[in-house]
Amino acid sequence: MDHQIVIVGGGIGGSALAAVLAQRGVDVLLLEQTEVFEDRVRGEWIAPWGVAETRRVGLYDLLMAAGGHHLTRHITYDESRTPEEAEAKTLPLGMFLPDVPGPLCIGNPHHCQTLFDEAVRRGAKGLRGARVTEIQPGANPTVTYVHNDVEKTVSCRLIVGADGRTSFVRERSGVALHQDRPHHWFAGLLVENAHAWPDDLQAIGTEGDFAFLAFPQGQGLIRLYGSYGLDQKRRFAGPDGPRAFLDAFRMTCSPLNDAIANATPAGPLLSYFNNDSWTDTPYAEGVVLVGDAAGWNDPIIGLGLSITYRDVRIVGDILATGDWDFAPYAEERAERLRRLRLAAKITSGLDAEFGEAAKARRRRHFDRSAEDPMLGAHGFAVMAGPETLPAEIFTEAHMARVLETA
Question: Which pLDDT value is given to residue 239?
């Protein structure tokens, strides 16, 4: 056997797991296809429960030293209420978990590189520009890859698929991927020179036919996202797309957004679908999947990194036992993703539906949830973790009650 574990994919999930395992003395080969990590316009916000996971796997201090930036306040702006009404309901983000001041933001390419370098520093063998051409799962798994124009096949005890949404490992392992129907487009852009926006404030808001999310990274950098209709595929396409995207942030309900609209694009503008995907069993003989390779949550609630860090923690703990039974991981992950699918559906039904009827529903929701906080419990699940709420919150009946479709 050439290595105990071969991890395919050196992004956040793969490199974090490699770092955790190498720290424990495990012989790990980490294969990453790219030579340089690029801005993929996602994976830059870690919810408080995800921050807790980074601590549990011993990587929090590393991320903070690399420039991790905490957000401590949240405002939900909306066309159905004045800016003063929204700001009066500012939410302190340190309320969700002890000793976690709020969500943690860090740029994705830098995040990936930091973890990859740490994995190597701790003893993992990391290869960049390594293109995996074949894997053989089973009792004696192997990975074939090309590096520096030389093809090599290595044997191992376990292959970890951390190679993203289009996972080659998942495909070759025969693990089925389920997806629901997309419901919106979701675009993202990093901007700089937005110094008039408070560095500690995250915000969301809906006005007209556009819903926005803003997550500062410090020093005038903000990662922006926006939801818009499936019938507007070309809305932000072409060379004028970034300017059109930033102009969409100019909202009466959130005057502070002018700081965003006047900022400077600092990366690519990319659009993708809002929808969920999941696997029933994220493992096969000789293989286990983590992160997006095992299925992902609708990005409207931004939990990709939190999900990934919990995957890393659970899989790492299982591997530490020596009894590599991934059934408990599959069971926990299936319920975790099921609950988060419901939370995302409620969020999109409230925040990313447009028109007068949707506006009136949001206004009623603000009023109704003030009287009955359980109507807003899906937001608590996003921040504190889906396991922190009772099972009845994650039902079609509860969703119908929140969205008034019963």
Answer: 95
Are residues 186 and 127 part of one domain? no
Residue 129 sits in the same domain as residue 51:
yes
Round to whole Å and give the CA distance between 76 and 117: 37
Is 389 a domain residue? Answer: no
Three-state secondary structure call for residue 229: coil
Residues facing residue 283 across a β-bridge: 288
- Compute the distance between CA of residue 125 and CA of residue 311 in angstroms, rounded to an integer: 21
Same domain? For 259 and 213 the reply is: yes
Structure tokens at 25: 């003395």
Q: Is residue 342 part of a domain?
A: no
Residue whose entry in the numeric block shows the structure tokens 């922006």: 224
pLDDT score recorded for residue 42: 84
Beta pairing class for 283-284 and 287-289: antiparallel
226 φ/ψ angles, rounded to the nearest 5 degrees:
-150, 140
Identify the CA nearest to 304 among candidates 332, 246, 267, 344.
344
Give the model's pLDDT for residue 326: 98
- Does pTM surpass 0.85? yes
**How confident is the model at residue 322, as a pLDDT?**
84
Dihedrals φ, ψ of 84, to 5°?
A: -65, -40
Domain that holds residue 46: 3-63+106-180+276-337
Q: Strand 178-179 vs strand 150-161: parallel, antiparallel, or unpaired?
A: unpaired
DSSP helix/strand/coil, 391? helix
Whole-number Å distance between alpha carbons of 137 and 144: 12
Residue 121 to residue 115: CA distance in whole angstroms: 10
Residue 89: the pLDDT is 97
The verdict on 148 and 193 lying in the same domain is no
Please provide the size of the chain in residues. Answer: 406
CB atoms within 10 A of CB 325: 10
DSSP states along 180-228 = ----EEEEEEEEE--TTS-TTEEEEEEETTEEEEEEEEETTEEEEEEEE
CB atoms within 10 A of CB 339: 21
- As a whole number of angstroms, the distance between CA 268 and CA 258 comes to 20
Show Cβ contacts of residue 106 under 8 Å, excluding neighbours closer than 6 positions: 44, 46, 63, 66, 67, 68, 69, 217
Run means of pLDDT, 10 residues per run, the chain, 406 residues: 96 98 98 95 94 98 98 98 98 97 97 98 98 97 98 98 98 97 95 97 98 97 97 95 98 97 96 94 98 97 98 97 94 98 96 97 97 96 97 96 92
